[in-house]
Specification:
single chain, 499 residues, alpha/beta, GMP Synthetase, Chain A, domain 3, Rossmann fold, six-stranded antiparallel sheet, 35% helix, globular
Length: 499
């Protein structure tokens, strides 16, 4: 029998006034107040390592035993309150104006995840990321050093090259504010956190992955639901926007968005929902993961570990009297079949597919086992989209088009085009901002006939060539090049030759 008092149901709170509390956290000894006295809370399961730490404390405190459940609850309170305190300090980082470069001049200080320098460094990293319009932060570990990269306008660029120890501290700091296990470095971990930046709050999705040289972290910066653009604000041309609005007027059927990762599909889907009245429609989403927390929309996060997959969630939703269903992605035959069933039975289903263009989506669904007759009866339209970087107007320069590009794009060889250079105005990238382009297939009698007879991508493309209402992404990109909005290199980067 251990000679320590046991307490339970005490509603224990963290005690930050003890200097040693952070070291206590690492040694499974938590300081708290009980009956106005500071006590050290231990658990029987980890008491041996805790006592080895306690004997070296400068001051002596009463030791009490608490249950493992109470211990974990108190530990979570420590992490939550500490994280909140430190995240609020981001506003100080803005006012302070310290740059990453100033921190990196003395990176020996960046060694502890809860030390003031590493907290300030990570806060400054967030401030810079938001100011630069970053969508993803990559923190990479290599043999002796590490890299911090920002993805801006769809392209990664290196922000910092630092010691390996600094990368470890940064990732540990991110684990702390994301409520992840600092001691676990062998398995992937996923979490979320929030940062307050002035009057704005930004959600951050965190993914930690063990690699051969240490852990790698990727942070996705998510806009708040109330910042999601309207259909008009997405950046599509008037013709495309008008067609999108027409698709969303239907009360049942299926609308698909296609494109590679990073082409803005999720933002467009949520913009669709913003256009639909959630007070008069029961809207439910199934996502992996949930991208934006939205009031008035029922959002489901898939969890294959407990059997909550896209198909099982969809089946359950159909018993929930839905009007509109947003499905993050049609990944397999089973999900495709249930999606078509949902669209046939009086529901508007919105989802995504990974295909290069709109025409490829139709044979892709057929390959997944969807009957061509059912597809023709349920599919309202397919939207393919890309995000194209705009040339910086401050530094773009005129160049002569090459012979091969002239031939491919069918542009007069004497035509001048623009290319990127880079200046202080665009952080030496040569580009500023992005424009959305999209092509939309809506099903008319001619296309329905082709689909019901069985078809491939080339047949659909040939049919669309004679459709004056269809404007391909290739045509739109060519126009952007001629108008000096973007470059030939950018058109090739986003896959114009594969469209």
């Amino acid at each position: 029998m251990l000679p320590f008092k046991t307490i339970s149901d005490a509603n224990l709170e963290p005690c930050f006034e003890i200097e040693e509390y952070e070291i206590g956290l690492k040694n499974n000894a938590l300081f708290s107040k009980h009956n106005d006295e500071i006590v050290v809370c231990l658990t029987e399961e980890k008491i041996e390592e805790s006592l080895n730490y306690i004997v070296h404390l400068k001051n002596k405190y009463e030791i009490v035993l608490i249950s493992l459940e109470d211990f974990e609850e108190l530990y979570d309170k420590y992490k939550e309150e500490k994280s909140t305190q430190n995240i609020d300090d981001i506003d100080d980082a803005i006012e302070d104006g310290t740059s990453l470069e100033q921190f990196l001049q003395n990176d020996d200080l960046l060694v502890e995840e809860n030390s003031a320098p590493i907290i300030s460094f990570v806060n400054t990293l967030f401030v810079k990321a938001v100011k630069d319009g970053t969508t993803d932060i990559h923190i990479e570990s290599y043999e002796t050093r590490g890299l911090v990269k920002f993805r801006i306008d769809g392209v990664l660029s290196e922000i910092a090259n630092v010691k390996k120890s600094v990368i470890v501290s940064i990732i540990n700091r991110i684990k702390v504010i994301s409520h992840l296990d600092i001691s676990e470095t062998r398995v992937p971990q996923d979490g979320r956190t929030k940062i307050n930046l002035g009057t704005s709050q930004i959600d951050i999705r965190v993914s930690i992955l063990p690699t051969h040289n240490g852990e790698k972290a990727v942070l996705r910066l998510l806009m708040k639901a109330d910042k999601i653009p309207s259909l008009e604000e997405l950046g599509f041309n008037e013709n495309t926007t008008s067609k999108l609005k027409g698709l969303l007027k239907h009360s049942f059927g299926m609308v698909l968005i296609t494109g590679p990762t990073g082409s803005g599909k999720s933002t467009t889907l949520y913009s669709f929902l913003k256009n639909i009245d959630s007070t008069t429609n029961n809207i439910t989403t199934v996502e992996d993961p949930v991208e934006y927390n939205s009031f008035g929309i029922n959002q489901i996060q898939v969890n294959p570990k407990v059997g909550l997959t896209f198909p099982t969630a969809l089946r359950s939703i159909l018993r929930q009297d839905p009007d509109v269903i947003l499905l993050g992605e049609i990944r397999d035959d089973e999900t495709a079949a249930i999606s078509v069933q949902a669209a046939m039975t009086g529901h508007l289903l919105l989802s995504t597919l990974h295909t290069n263009n709109a025409a490829a989506a139709i044979p892709r669904l057929m390959d997944m086992g969807v009957d061509s007759y059912l597809l023709g009866s349920t599919l309202l339209g397919v939207v393919a989209q890309r995000l194209v970087r705009n040339l910086c107007n401050n530094c773009k320069v005129e160049v002569q088009i090459s012979e091969s590009d002239s031939s491919f794009f069918d542009i007069d060889p004497k035509q001048k085009v623009f290319t990127n250079v880079g200046c202080a105005n665009c952080n030496d990238r040569g580009y500023q901002g992005r424009t959305a382009i999209g092509e939309i297939i809506t099903l008319d009698e001619g296309l329905l006939k082709i689909i019901k007879g069985g078809c491939d991508e080339l047949e659909i493309k040939e049919y669309l060539k004679d459709n004056s209402d269809f404007i391909s992404m290739q045509t739109q990109l060519k126009q952007m090049i001629l108008e000096g909005i973007t470059s030939i290199d950018e058109a090739i980067r986003i896959g114009i030759k594969e469209l």
